[in-house]
Design goal:
CATH topology of the largest domain: Spore Coat Polysaccharide Biosynthesis Protein SpsA, Chain A
Structural class: alpha/beta
CATH class of the largest domain: Alpha Beta
Largest sheet: 8 strands, mixed
Strand order of the largest sheet: 3-2-1-4-7-6-8-5
Number of helices: 15
Number of strands: 17
Helix content: 25-40%
Distance between the termini: 55 Å
CATH superfamily of the largest domain: Spore Coat Polysaccharide Biosynthesis Protein SpsA, Chain A
């Protein structure tokens, strides 16, 4: 188990895992040939390597017969229904057997030690999601038989940042190779050079197949993985060469329109405040608030719910007896107030979960003060102390802490609360520090 995002504490795996290399493909026979040839030269043991080419409905299925004697290789195909790289990757994973999944694009050629470096962390710590290093070059004149030699000639470039997108170089330097990812580290996880354990991939639920345009599916997957407790890491030794320039440097017609399509697809699913600057509300909120209806009247519930929602990207779920009746008595028409439990999709994407019981009333900045303490590099949970009174309780936890504890709880004798404290840390604050009070059970609402 890795505390918070401390991938620097991970040791070495005791065994050599079976690695599944999953390659989404669409009408790229020349580029795929370079990738497959490079995979035959990997330092990872060939008997612990399998390759799955996931064809996204190409006009002609890829011919891999030239490599079947040197690679354990399988081709799977889905119908051509547009750009479905996310679904193709899921299809490839479904046909694979490895405990570690290495995603490479069909135009991204791995250097000989790529897999050895890319799998180091996921093989030892299954919570890790690793992004490799991607350089760019024109490989249009490189033949499959000479691609390994071509990469060898460019080995002196590996120690520099030449041919590497500056925005990624800056991000990895700023975050110490994602050791300190912040909430926006997901933007630097590129699926063309991404590796994780099958255990993490399955728990996260794979790529979202609703993405049917270029771009965005890797940000959504990485963000969801982080919300579900993944450890982000950039492995600079896992270097691959992309055939052609970075998207930011390509001549793309209607570039703004393309990026807007991506942003519109991401905003409902990524709760990062940077993705939601328009002030609109989505079905999946940044903050999930679970309010117990026990001891509440409709009037006191109004005060509690209003304090949790005011001015925030939040939604309230009323939990407990008479929740439906109390909501009817409130008389509101507000889609942010719901009854029952949040669904799995919401809990896998929100950043925070707040649990409230009692007739508590939050001030305008109470939840902001609490959530600021719960996150990467801070802690996993904050509990509000009401001078020991059992009449009320407020607990704020990060989704990533809750999910990682859930994954590991069955593998340890430590209780969930102690496990959370060990992995992320837990704090207690006095209610006066965050402006929360216990209100009356029957407050006066008249004006």
């Amino acid at each position: 188990m890795v505390p918070d995002n401390r991938w620097d504490l991970v040791g070495v795996a005791s065994t050599t895992p079976l690695v599944s290399v999953v390659i989404p493909y669409y009408n790229q026979p020349r580029q795929l040939a370079l990738v497959l040839e490079a995979l035959t030269a990997q330092t990872h043991p060939p008997d612990r390597l399998e390759v799955i080419v996931a064809d996204d409905g190409s006009a002609r299925s890829p011919d891999v017969s030239a490599w079947t004697s040197r690679l354990d290789i399988t081709v799977v195909t889905q119908e051509d229904k547009g750009f479905r790289a996310a679904a193709a990757r899921n299809l490839g994973v479904a046909a694979s057997s490895g405990s570690v999944l290495c995603f490479l694009d069909a135009d991204t050629v791995p250097t000989p030690a790529y897999i050895q470096h890319a799998i180091r962390l996921p093989a030892a710590a299954p919570d890790t999601l690793v992004v490799g290093r991607r350089k760019h070059a024109d490989l249009s004149r490189v033949a499959p038989g000479s691609v390994v030699e071509w990469m060898s000639e460019r080995r002196p470039l590996e120690s520099s940042h030449d041919c590497e997108p500056g925005w990624l170089v800056d991000a990895y330097e700023r975050t110490s190779n994602l050791l300190n990812p912040g909430w926006d580290g997901y933007k630097y996880l590129i699926s063309a050079v991404m590796t994780c354990s099958r255990q993490l991939f399955d728990d996260v639920g794979g790529f979202d197949p609703s993405f049917v345009h270029y771009g965005g599916e890797d940000w959504e997957f990485a963000n969801r993985a982080f919300m579900m407790g993944a450890v982000f890491a950039h492995e600079s030794g896992a270097l691959a060469w992309h055939d052609g320039p970075d998207w930011a440097e390509r001549s793309v017609p209607e570039r703004i329109s393309e990026k807007n399509t991506e942003a519109l697809a991401l905003a409902p699913l990524v709760t990062d405040p940077a993705a939601r600057t328009a002030g609109l509300l989505y079905s999946i909120p940044d903050i999930v608030v679970l309010v117990s209806t026990a001891r509440h009247t409709a009037a006191s519930l109004m005060r509690t719910v209003a304090g949790a929602l005011r001015g925030r990207d939040a939604a309230v779920w009323l939990v407990g007896a008479h929740a439906d009746t109390l909501l009817t008595h409130l008389g509101v028409s507000d889609s942010r107030i719901r009854v029952g439990d949040p669904d799995a999709s919401t809990l896998s994407r929100c950043r925070f979960v707040v649990e409230v019981s009692g007739t508590v009333v939050c001030s305008a900045d109470s939840l902001d003060l609490l959530t600021a303490q719960v996150g990467p590099g801070e802690c996993g949970q904050v509990t509000v102390d009401f001078d020991g009174s059992p009449a009320a309780s407020v607990t704020v936890g990060s989704s990533r802490a809750r999910h990682r504890v859930r994954r590991w709880a069955a593998h340890t004798d430590v209780g969930p609360d102690e496990l959370l404290d060990r992995l992320f840390g837990a704090r207690t604050v006095h209610h006066s520090e965050v402006g929360i009070v216990i209100g009356d059970e029957e407050p006066a609402l008249s004006w």
